[in-house]
Amino acid sequence: MEIDTKQNVSKEILLKAFNHMMLAKAMADIYEENRNICKYVHSTSRGHEAIQLATAYQLTNEDWVSPYYRDESLLLGIGFEPYQLMLQLLAKAEDPFSGGRSYYAHPSSLAENFPKIIHQSSATGMQAIPTTGIAQGIQYIQEFNLKTYDKNPVVVCSLGDNSVTEGEVSEAFQFAALHQLPIIFLVQDNEWGISVTKEEARSSDAYDFAAGFVGLNRMKVDGTDFEASFLAMKKAVDFVRAERKPMLVCAKTVLIGHHTSGVRREFYRDEEDLIKHRAQDPGNILRNQLLENGVDEDLLKKIEKKARLEAEQAFEKAQNAENPKPETVENYVFAPTPITEETGEREPKGQEKIVMVDAAIHAIQELMWKHPEALLYGQDVGERIGGVFREAVTLGAKFGKKRVFNTAIQEAYIIGSTIGMSAVGLKPIVEVQFADYIYPGINQLITEISKSCYLSNGKFPVSNIIRVPIGAYGGGGPYHSGSVESILANIKGIKIAYPSNAADFKGLLKAAYYDPNPVIMLEHKGLYWSKVPGTEDAKTIEPAEDYILPFGKGKIISEADENEISKGRTMLIITYGMGVYWAKQAVKNHPGRVEIIDLRTLIPLDENLVFERVKIHGKCMVLTEEQINNSFAEAFAHRISKACFRFLDAPVEAMGSLNLPAVPINLILEKEMLPNAEKVSEKIREMLSH
């Protein structure tokens, strides 16, 4: 796309930009002069000021922008004060973005008069998917008239040039181009990726790379020239605001400062390279343009002096600001959920039993009828087959392709896009086709989703539901049978449900919908249809539409005989998912002597119920389908041992699959690897002999 360079930028805007550039320079200089005080790692925008300010000046309070860690000038241009930025620089309590938890220039904001900013991590390029999710959400909102805007919102995703080589950035480009989303990918190309040169890192710049994404419009601009940058960004923003199509802007910039305060330019750059970059200092270029246009040099000197004074005063004030109080360290891991009690009718009269897969379909159907902000997407969930397990069948036909739709094979996008969707007020329900394929999305789960509420000081909890068919049965083989709950349970800031029957599934899914936090629903494939022998009890009476089961509430599903308990002849099995059915069959060989608890959710975990019952029985086993070493079950067994040590008659045991890298496809080998009722019964016999 061509830029009209014949237009003029007003002197008022040019002077505003010069003031912000001098402010950014003064701030960078002060940080460098006070390295002993500025002890936390930070980057500055030196060399990138022109394109960043040019972008900021185009945006309204209904737009969204995701800066990256070098975008300090963009933040100044939006309207943030140096003092606010310095509060984060020094990790102070009143840091408006993260409350002293995150790095400098890692903003998150819902400020009424500024463009909105979701949380994003330091992981390069990872903001591309969540920010594209914002554009996807805005398109959905406008399609269904869920909200009116004064102007069509524009979404801007800012990226460094070397981050474009990340595969997840390509997923974002692909989705934006395919669905024609209203987003601008602003790529700031300073030719360096820490110490990696452009020649070492990439075959082309972002402009040429983007040519492969049909439907993604492109523009190239000198990002050191403010006037050219302003005209380019005005054209880009106006285009996206009017046409509702995506745009990539490749802005050539320079790196005058250090990569970060910790990775300094003298470590890896020679003087020749530094001289080349300094010659294109945006502040000097703009100064010369202003002088050529008749602006008095004394005025520019006054602006520079005033900027230095303002930055010094802000820095001194920020130094004196209070530090966070230690007792606040655990705030905002989760947003408070309104779902705390079991409500509604679990077993309505006159209802027939349904299988688990139907419970999920019915729950989502009821939610989508009631809530237009709910939508479902993932691989193959659309109308044609409704999921490879038919777990979404009928939903596409009932709600249409705009609310239930297929995606490409892009697990990172499927998961990460829910961040942006949630930020604009939608409730995305997404699916990863098999648990074994969640790994490409783990990056988004860990770096973005799990930390969003905590690092945004509670502003951006991610409200989503991620459905994950899980588990082994019937020769599914090494890439369709895995259990992943231990990996997920190690990600702090997400909730995990693992229902074992239809009623729990429906109640937990409803709770997940009304929970403002990220929820993963682990759904055992072998329980979907109760086709595995011994799993008939996974079918239940279908709960009423108003039934909701809160997270963190385990259930005793098989009780021991009180007489046996009084004699100290009983034990407890704690399990979930398919383990429930192995345990229920196994205890038939030990009548009256075994109690079973179905955890139902793994995070939060009903430790109170477990500890209370362990103290009564004195013997306990945690049963899982996962490979046992270093598993969730083994870790929980340790916590039980610590909490209940004085009440134990024997060590707490953990039982699971053999410690193999994968589930073999051969049915004989699969059976040998997995627990089953017979193996569990033998373990019970051993433990009861203590």
Would you give an account of this structure?
This protein has 690 residues and is an alpha/beta fold. The model has no long low-confidence stretch (mean pLDDT 95). The chain has a 7-stranded mixed β-sheet, with helices on both faces. The chain starts with 10 loop residues before the first helix and ends with a helix. It is an enzyme of class 1 (oxidoreductase). E1 component of the 2-oxoglutarate dehydrogenase (OGDH) complex which catalyzes the decarboxylation of 2-oxoglutarate, the first step in the conversion of 2-oxoglutarate to succinyl-CoA and CO(2).
Q: Can I get a quick summary?
A:
This protein has 690 residues and is an alpha/beta fold. The protein has 25 helices and 21 strands. The protein is 39% helix and 14% strand.
Structural class: alpha/beta
Beta content comes to: 5-15%
Low-pLDDT stretches are none
Helix content: 25-40%
Mean pLDDT over all positions: 95
Q: Shape, please?
A: elongated
Number of strands: 21
Strand order of the largest sheet: 10-9-11-12-14-13-19
> From the alpha-carbon coordinates, what is the Rg to the nearest angstrom?
29 Å
Q: How many helical elements?
A: 25
At the third CATH level, what is the topology name of the largest domain? Rossmann fold
CATH top level class name of the largest domain: Alpha Beta
Major sheet size, sense and barrel closure: 7 strands, mixed
CATH superfamily of the largest domain: Thiamin diphosphate (ThDP)-binding fold, Pyr/PP domains
Q: In CATH terms, what is the architecture of the largest domain?
A: 3-Layer(aba) Sandwich
Straight-line distance between termini: 78 Å
Number of domains: 3
